[in-house]
Design a protein that fits this description.
Strand content: 25-35%
Oligomer: single chain
Bound molecules: adenosine-2'-monophosphate, calcium ion
CATH architecture of the largest domain: 2-Layer Sandwich
Protein name: inositol-phosphate phosphatase
Distance between the termini: 50 Å
Number of helices: 8
CATH topology of the largest domain: Fructose-1,6-Bisphosphatase, Chain A, domain 1
GO molecular function: inositol monophosphate 1-phosphatase activity; metal ion binding
Helix content: 25-40%
Order of helices and strands: HEEHEEHEEEEEEHHEHEHEEH
CATH superfamily of the largest domain: Fructose-1,6-Bisphosphatase, subunit A, domain 1
Number of domains: 2
Strand order of the largest sheet: 3-4-5-6-7-8-9
Pfam families: Inositol_P
Shape: globular
Radius of gyration: 17 Å
Keywords: Hydrolase, Magnesium, Metal-binding
EC number: 3.1.3.25
CATH class of the largest domain: Alpha Beta
Number of strands: 14
Length: 256
């Protein structure tokens, strides 16, 4: 089986793993703060994917949120960047609105991407040929839209963060309407279907955006750091993702 098809199968199997484990109840721990949580299922799902990938592809490398590959210094070879559960707070509080996010890069170049909305059974994915799909539906390039009438996603915490409060509020006031769904992967994925016009946040990790970046860029969107710089796959950074015209406008607003 091709890498893309195999990876898709792994992601679907991982979602079955999550649903089975959820039914047994969650063990929740906090990480850096009381609202930075991890569960036994986040860790178990990453281990599930890690073991699958290593058994089929022992020479591939893996970076995952819950402990794998944090010391990786370069993007040589085949690199899987994995978030076993993106939106853990939604997972814990709502048991829905979370995703598995997997981006595969070869020598630093996008190969394929998968974001699976686990409870809705919706898979956003892209094959090495460059087409992007929502389940079986091939998606069109992202359309431009005016900021003033668009729905954009912002990380809600950014609005209350002192240093950047002014720029986040200015952007929120200029946008048509603002949402904060709590899963970076799903917020990026929804740009591909046109349900969200932009996603803007500070401080994400590579596993939060590795798959979404591929999906959005392949449909003509632009993804950069909050200051408009190229994304480094191995570094934490802020993110602005949108159609090129809106991207430019947002970068100007938040850096004014
Ligand atoms: P996570 O659920 O995988 O941790 C929430 O706005 C989004 O930001 C989620 O995609 C979440 O990913 C991500 N995020 C990154 N760092 C975080 C942190 N320290 N605490 C909570 N969410 C974080
Ligand atoms: Ca986390
Ligand atoms: Ca995440
Ligand atoms: Ca996670």
């Amino acid at each position: 089986m091709e890498l893309y098809e195999q990876a898709k199968q792994f992601v679907i199997e991982a979602s079955e793993y999550i649903k089975k484990e959820m039914a047994q109840g969650l063990t929740v721990e906090s990480k850096s703060s009381l609202n930075d949580l991890v569960t036994n299922v986040d860790k178990g799902c990453e281990t599930f994917l890690y073991e699958k990938i290593m058994s089929y592809y022992p020479d591939h490398r893996i970076v995952g949120e819950e402990g794998h590959g944090h010391d990786i210094q370069d993007t040589d070879g085949v690199l899987w960047i994995i978030d076993p559960i993106d939106g853990t707070l939604n997972f814990v509080h709502q048991q829905k609105n979370f995703a598995i996010s997997v981006g595969i890069y070869i020598d630093g170049k996008p190969h394929s991407a998968f974001i699976l909305d686990v409870m809705n059974h919706d898979l956003y994915h892209s094959s090495p040929g460059g087409a992007v799909y929502f389940n079986d539906q091939k998606l069109e390039r992202i359309e431009p839209s005016p900021l003033e009438t668009s729905l954009i996603c912002l990380n809600a915490r950014w609005l209350v963060k002192d240093a950047s409060q002014t720029s986040a509020l200015t952007l929120a006031k200029k946008a048509g309407t603002v949402r904060s769904y709590g899963s970076s992967a799903l917020e990026l994925a929804q740009i591909t279907t046109g349900q969200v016009a932009s996603y803007v946040t500070y401080q994400l990790k590579p596993w939060d955006f590795a798959a979404g970046l591929i999906l959005v860029e392949r449909l003509g969107g632009v993804v950069t750091t909050e200051t408009g710089q190229p994304i480094n796959l191995l570094q934490a950074s802020g993110l602005v993702a949108a159609h090129p015209s809106m991207h430019k406008e947002i970068i100007e607003i938040i850096n004014a």
